[in-house]
Amino acid sequence: MMKSKRILIATLATTSIAALFALNPITINAATKSVNTTQIQKNDKQYVIKNAPELSKWGYIVNVNSSEQPVFVGKDSYEKMLNNQFFKGSKVANPKKIKNVRFKIVKTMIFKNANGGTPQYLITSKDHKYNAWTTEGELQYYAINRKSLKAVVKPLKRIHKRNYEGLHNREVKNKHDFNLAVKAAKKLKGNQRKFILASLNQMKKDSSTENDIGNILAWSVGGSWKLNG
């Protein structure tokens, strides 16, 4: 009889404690165990960072085209940013003050989910003094506004404007302007001629889509590109 009574008391006590925890769940102090968001995102593998040989081969030819884009200073920041798009350095340079600094694209980061976000690019200056992860909208070909490229850029911007406005029956006009851009590019010299003609050729190949095509010249004249109507 006494043994049964002890078992009954123990059972009631256990049930009461369980009920108490259910009503008052234990909370963990955030200060004692912080959550590393970057690590979670890395573990979840929501994005892929890889080399960008097709863009890197052109060398130091892009400028930061934004006054708000954070550019981190220091060679050590470059090493930390190589495989970490979420790195935030403590020393930041004002893009307005380094507008003449040329950068090279060395890495690209693409989200596995097509709707996960815009592709990001790691850019670095010579000696890796200035570094940043940025989108194509923040970058442009360093000579895009020079007089020598005016005859190339002007028709390309007309094409972009037609596409942006969604004008009907624009295919013939687009191809006419594209041919004007190619004709002007052939008059250029040296590495600039090589870069512009190669970029135009790539734009023509990729003209069936209006998505990001990883083309520095296309970024510099408006971003998305589509030649066909």
Concise overview:
This protein is of the alpha+beta class and 229 residues long. The chain is built from eight helices and eight strands; from the N terminus they run ααβαββαβββββαααα.
What is the overall shape? globular
Total strands: 8
Distance between the ends: 92 Å
Assess the beta-strand content as a share of residues. Answer: 5-15%
The count of helical stretches stands at 8
Strand order of the largest sheet: 1-5-6-7-3-4
**Series of H and E elements:** HHEHEEHEEEEEHHHH
Radius of gyration: 28 Å
Question: What is the overall pLDDT average?
Answer: 79
- List unreliable stretches of 5+ residues: 1-43
Profile the largest sheet. Answer: 6 strands, antiparallel
How would you classify the helix and strand content by structural class? alpha+beta
- The level of helicity is 40-55%
Q: Can you give a write-up of this model?
A:
The structure is a single chain. With 229 residues, the chain is of the alpha+beta class. It is 41% helix and 15% strand. It contains 8 helices and 8 strands. Strands 1-5-6-7-3-4 form a 6-stranded antiparallel beta sheet. Strand 6 and strand 7 form a beta hairpin. It is globular and about 50 Å long.
